[in-house]
TrEMBL record:
PANTHER family: 3-OXOACYL-[ACYL-CARRIER-PROTEIN] REDUCTASE, CHLOROPLASTIC, SHORT-CHAIN DEHYDROGENASES/REDUCTASES FAMILY MEMBER
Record family assignment: Belongs to the short-chain dehydrogenases/reductases (SDR) family.
SUPFAM superfamilies: NAD(P)-binding Rossmann-fold domains
Gene: fabG
Protein name, per record: 3-oxoacyl-ACP reductase FabG
Pfam families: adh_short_C2 (PF13561)
């Protein structure tokens, strides 16, 4: 039997990048998935790619709106009968040095990452506490551990997700609900590959394993945290960095 046979997962930011890679991994292990993303066309395309409505559903979702996230979770319960896994992955960047960053750029990143994750944890927990089981996986970043120039907004949000994960894990543990987080490092994606080559090369040179990570390598860690393989783990933060920033 596959690791997630018969289970239902909700993944925010699931139309592309790490979210889609996680969805692909979950479906390959027997899960049904509900994808939430702000881009309805891309989300529908991703759901069809994953196998269509018997396996994957697309839902338009702005994670900064609690009502959208609640609808996303309700869709999973109504269509697939429950919610076993919640992956809070949706994110944006609005990079600028602190001197040049606008208040709007700061607020946008905090809203999507930090409030969006809180909305996801809260909505999932409301269902999972009644079931007395469930796994929540929050996407942080190594930027939240070490801080990055030009990312005072993003680094703050990703550090906040770590604190939120630890606090929520303590609140929900007695109900059988686990909450963990992942901190990816330099992962190959459309966003990171858009960097100027000299910046990419300098970042890759900092990785002891000598290369960038692949989305599938983050997805495998999400699978571990979502499945029974991590049944005695909660409140943990796993770095997927190739050894960078130890």
């Amino acid at each position: 039997m596959s690791l997630l046979t018969g289970q239902t997962a909700v993944i925010t930011g699931g139309a592309q990048g790490l979210g889609l890679a996680i969805a692909e991994k979950f479906v390959s292990e027997g899960a049904r998935v509900v994808l939430g993303d702000i881009n309805p066309t891309a989300t529908q395309s991703a759901a069809e790619h994953l196998g269509g409505p018997d396996v994957a559903l697309a839902t338009s979702c702005d994670v900064t709106r609690a009502s959208d996230v609640e609808t996303l979770v309700a869709t999973a319960v109504e269509r697939f009968g429950g919610l076993d896994i919640m992956v809070n992955n949706a994110g944006i960047t609005r990079d600028a040095t602190m001197r040049k960053m606008t208040e709007e750029q700061f607020d946008q990143v905090i809203a999507v990452h930090l409030k969006g994750t809180w909305n996801g944890v809260r909505a999932a927990a409301a269902v999972m506490r009644e079931q007395k089981r469930g796994a929540i996986v929050n996407m942080s970043s190594i930027s939240g551990k070490v801080g990055m120039i030009g990312q005072t907004n993003y680094s703050a949000a990703k550090a906040g997700i770590v604190g939120m994960t630890k606090a929520a894990s303590k609140e929900l543990a007695y109900l059988g609900v686990r909450v963990n987080a992942i901190q990816p490092g330099l992962i190959r994606s459309a966003m990171t590959e858009a960097m100027p080559q000299h910046i990419w090369d300098s970042k890759e040179a900092e990785v002891p394993l000598g290369r960038a990570g692949e989305p599938d390598e983050v997805a495998k860690v999400a699978l571990f945290l979502a499945s029974g393989m991590s049944s005695y783990m909660t409140g943990t933060v796993l770095e997927v960095t190739g050894g960078r920033h130890l």
